[in-house]
Design a protein that fits this description.
The chain is mostly helical and 701 residues long. The protein is built from 23 helices and six strands.
């Protein structure tokens, strides 16, 4: 029988369907009118409504191809059938019941969305119960939606405390902002009062200056008047003296002419004496006129010294007032700058607060990882010790990646492209050897030992592949190359793997690793020399002395950090003992102790600071180009104790030129060697670069 005929047969009239409709009407609790409708429904042909039997070919899905000939014939027959018929009574009763229940919920004052869903749920349950054939499928659909709704409710219920917490944090931040604004308002009012007081003081000083200037002007005017009065009096006295002398001479001449015998002298002799006396008088008068012409404007020394003393005192007072005024101006400018910086800091803090409020997320609960990570809580505590959230994410990713890497049996080959390293150039599938971390670390350590002992240095990727060939043979070398590469690329937190990966991919020079190992060897050697009893124990004072001798350029706080990483505490004394062999220990998987990690962190920080000083000394942007002489001068400025060999090695690394091809200082072709500053700094960051001596020479005692 065709499938559409089976479906029609399912809805043929039967006693079961009549009883089924009675049960449905009783379960829905419909009214008497609905029961009447049922009787009418039973009387009409004693079978269910044929709707939509005419569309059975359209509504029922068939296992037929959409573009087959049979499909086109049926589509043509559907278009010829009539379109309009009434709905089945059973469908109308379900719709009426659903509409009634929704209307009752809308009449209620408080109808939640979950209550509005209840009529649909009940209607769907009636529908499921009545269609026994499709009950398992419909029940599974209903249960899936119910589970999803319950899950969403749980999520909403879990997010409610977070919402309350966000509201609380928002209120606390608002209170802190209001408190900060109140404090700033108080400080601003205090600064305004100080500003007004300073302005009043400035006005007072200006008034005193104006009064002193007016007093000086008045004194100068009085001095000029006194000078004119004394000059007039002097001239009047000179004229009076000249008149008196003239009258006396006339009287003497008259007395001599009238009674020559009175004097008892010879008139000729007296006449000659008078003539000589008049000549002396004329000469004296000439000298007097000369003195008058030369010193007519000269004041008495006593008056001059007194006026000079007064003028000096006034000048000192004026200079003192000017200095006070300048100091007040400087203080005012400093206060203005402080006020502007305070405003900028306030705006910056406010913007940071808004950014934190916008982007802040709850702290992750890392304890949930204890049940997920292999090894349980003990291993997770060991992995998470001393790490921040970013590092914990890396650890978690490594754990996940390790599991995925273990599941892989093969690696796809990367081909023979130019960007593919030589030790990975292969087409096809490569076997995953699945070694442990311990095996990988031991293999890398053996590779480093052989690389250090190698006399003729080849490129590091070629050496790595040849090392694998010698160790595992040519057939398995490629498989081990892919396996080791995937492992060291994944475990970035492992120091041995991360350093080997950086050197292998050309992101770091192998001299960095070798120099680090030489530094650790030198430290251990110095500690062994100090340990005369060969007990493996040093005092903290000896430990500090050795660190200062090995690292003379490190500041005291850096030495303190190294000592704390080695086990010293601020409450400890210098006489406490230290097992120095424990500072250089590594576990089977290559994890080092905090002392070695702190040494590496300080080395990288000092390198970044050194390159930052070089950039500041050059005064260029990263995209600008820089010449070789300019880099040479900048390096000698920030590190005056650089020897020629070290300087040439730095320049060779920065400009990617062999040392033999570097021009000497002062040659013309020096200016032709140009590189972008960012590229030069990146090349220097890859190599072992550090400060040789202090930037400025300390003055001799």
């Amino acid at each position: 029988m065709p499938r559409n005929q089976n479906w029609v047969a399912t809805f043929s009239p039967s006693k079961w369907q009549t009883e089924h409709q009675d049960k449905l009407i009783n379960s829905l609790g419909l009214s008497a009118s609905l029961r009447t409708s049922q009787s009418c429904l039973s009387s009409i042909g004693s079978h269910l409504s044929p709707w939509p039997t005419y569309t059975s070919g359209q509504t029922i899905l068939h296992n037929r191809k959409p573009c087959s000939d049979d499909y086109r014939k049926r589509a043509g027959s559907w278009q010829q059938q009539p379109l309009g018929t009434t709905k089945p009574r059973y469908l109308e009763q379900l719709e009426n019941y659903l509409r009634k229940e929704l209307l009752l919920l809308e009449l209620g004052t408080d109808s939640a969305q979950e209550l509005r869903l209840q009529p649909y749920r009940e209607t769907f349950e009636f529908f499921i119960e009545d269609f026994k054939t499709y009950k398992p499928l419909l029940s599974s659909i209903k249960n899936a939606y119910e589970v999803m709704l319950a899950h969403q409710k749980e999520r909403i219920r879990a997010l409610e405390p977070l919402k309350a917490k966000l509201v609380t944090v928002n209120d606390d931040c608002n209170k802190r902002i209001l408190a900060m604004r109140a404090e700033e308002k108080t400080e601003i009012s205090i600064l305004k009062k100080e500003k007004m007081n300073l302005l009043k003081l400035i006005d007072k000083k200006n008034e005193e200056k104006i009064s002193l200037q007016s007093e000086v002007t008045k004194l100068r005017k009085n001095l000029a008047e006194e000078y004119l009065r004394y000059l007039t009096e002097r001239d009047a006295r000179k004229i009076l003296i000249a008149d008196l002398n003239e009258l006396r001479y006339q009287r003497e001449d008259m007395s001599l002419a009238q009674s020559p015998g009175i004097w008892g002298e010879d008139p000729v002799k007296l006449t000659l004496a008078l003539k000589m006396t008049r000549q002396d008088l004329a000469r004296t008068q000439m000298e007097l006129n000369t003195m008058k012409a030369n010193f007519g404007d000269v004041v008495p020394r006593r008056d001059f010294e007194m006026q000079e003393r007064t003028n000096r005192d006034l000048q000192e007072q004026l200079n003192s007032l000017r200095d006070d005024y300048k100091e007040v101006c400087k203080e005012h400018e400093i206060l203005l700058q402080l006020h502007m910086s305070t405003l900028k800091e306030r705006d910056q803090f406010y913007s940071e607060l808004q950014e934190i409020q916008r982007t802040s997320t709850p702290r992750p609960d890392w304890s949930k990882c204890e049940d997920v990570v292999a090894g349980g809580p003990d291993r997770w505590q060991m992995l998470a010790e001393g790490k921040n959230s970013d590092q914990l994410v890396d650890v978690l990713l490594e754990e996940i990646g390790e599991g995925l890497l273990r599941e892989k049996d093969f690696f796809p080959g990367l081909g023979y492209g130019e960007s593919i390293p030589t030790f990975l150039q292969f087409d096809g599938i490569v076997e995953n050897k699945k070694p442990t971390k311990k095996d990988v670390v031991n293999l890398l350590r053996d590779a480093w030992k052989e690389r250090v002992a190698e006399e003729q240095k080849e490129k590091f990727p070629d050496f790595f592949f040849n090392f694998l060939k010698r160790r595992f043979g040519p057939t398995d070398a490629m498989a081990w190359a892919y396996t080791i590469f995937e492992n060291i690329k994944l475990f970035r937190s492992n120091e041995v793997m991360s350093q080997f990966y950086a050197v292998l991919m050309g992101k770091r020079k192998e001299s960095v690793y070798i120099k680090q190992k030489e530094t650790l060897t030198q430290l251990l050697k110095e500690m062994t020399n100090v340990d005369s009893q060969n007990e493996g124990i040093l005092t903290m004072d000896q430990f500090r002395t050795i660190l200062k001798s090995i690292f003379p350029l490190k500041k005291e706080e850096k030495i303190q950090e190294l000592m704390e990483a080695g086990g010293w505490h601020p409450n400890s004394s210098n006489a406490d003992l230290l097992n120095y062999h424990s500072l250089f220990m590594e576990d089977e998987e290559g994890h080092t102790v905090p002392f070695v990690q702190k040494l590496w962190e300080q080395y990288m920080d000092e390198k970044d600071k050194y390159l930052q000083e070089l950039k500041q000394e050059l005064g260029l942007e990263l995209r600008d180009e820089v010449t070789l002489p300019k880099v040479r001068r900048a390096l000698m400025t920030i590190d005056p104790r650089l020897d020629k060999q070290t300087l040439n090695s730095y320049l060779s690394q920065a400009f990617q030129l062999p040392v033999t091809e570097l021009p000497e200082e002062g040659e013309e072709k020096e200016e032709d060697i140009v590189i972008q500053l960012q590229a030069a700094l990146e090349q220097l960051h890859m190599t072992d670069i550090k400060r040789v001596g202090p930037r400025e020479q300390e003055p001799a005692n």
